[in-house]
Every structure is written in C-alpha cells, then in structure tokens.
Design brief:
Shape: elongated
CATH topology of one domain: Nucleotidyltransferase, domain 5
Distance between the termini: 83 Å
Radius of gyration: 27 Å
Strand order of the largest sheet: 4-3-2-5-6
Number of strands: 7
Oligomer: single chain
CATH class of one domain: Alpha Beta
C-alpha cells in the first residue's frame, strides 16, 4: 500500500501583490518629484499670510548680492527687459514671478516692477508662508 501526501506544494508564485506595491511606489515618486522646485538659488523670501495659485510663465530672481536671474540664468539688469521679451513674446495675460531676497532694498524691486508694467505683464511676488 503506497501512501501519498494530500498536501502538494505549488511551485507557482503570484506577483500581483508585488506589482501593486511597485505601481504605488512609482506614483508616489512621480508626485513628489513634481513638488521639487528646479532652481538652485538660495533666497530668504519675505513672509506672507496670503498665497496665490496662479502659474507664472517665468521667474525673475534678485539675490542678496544684487545679482539678477531669469529662471536660473544670470542676467545683467540692463538686459533684463530684452530677455523677458524674448521669453514671453506676444503672450497676453502673462504672469511673471519675482523672487527677491528680503535683505534687498525695495528700489530694485521697483525697477523690476517698472519693467513688468511697461510690458503689461502681471506680477506675482514670491513669499514664504507665515
């Protein structure tokens, strides 16, 4: 009389649980990577209790040592208006975000605001939440 085992081990492995985890991780990393701002300029922005949801087309940054940047490219102040016109072109209802270090005098902010006013650009002043 031959005895046979009722419990047979199946050599198959189900990967469905593993693929669910991989897709969840993929979605998580895709979402968190879009939250990282690509510019590497270190600015201490002024604080504000109000934030806007408008999406700017480009950014102008002024560092504490009075260096002007459009996006992350250094620009001489005399060329700032020309560079903005090249980037923006004839677009209407365009937002320009201004990132200015809080130690910089208001005089330089006013100069950039005059350029945006002369070209009918809308301005967003970047701040940190209080």
């Amino acid at each position: 009389m031959a005895l046979t085992s009722r419990n047979k081990v199946s050599p198959n492995f189900s990967m469905s649980g593993m693929t669910d985890i991989v897709f969840l991780l993929l979605i998580f990393f895709m979402i968190t990577s879009t939250l990282i701002h690509p510019t590497a300029l270190k600015l201490l922005l002024p604080e504000s209790s109000h934030q806007t949801s408008a999406k700017p087309l480009t950014t102008v940054s002024i560092t504490h040592d009075l260096q002007f940047y459009v996006e992350d490219q250094p620009v001489d102040f005399n060329d700032l208006e020309r560079v903005l016109q090249e980037i923006i072109g004839n677009n209407q209802e365009v937002y320009v975000s201004i990132h200015i270090d809080k130690s910089v005098d208001v005089e330089y902010l006013v100069k950039v605001l005059n350029i945006t006013k002369n070209n009918n650009y809308k301005v967003i002043l970047a701040t940190t939440p209080e």
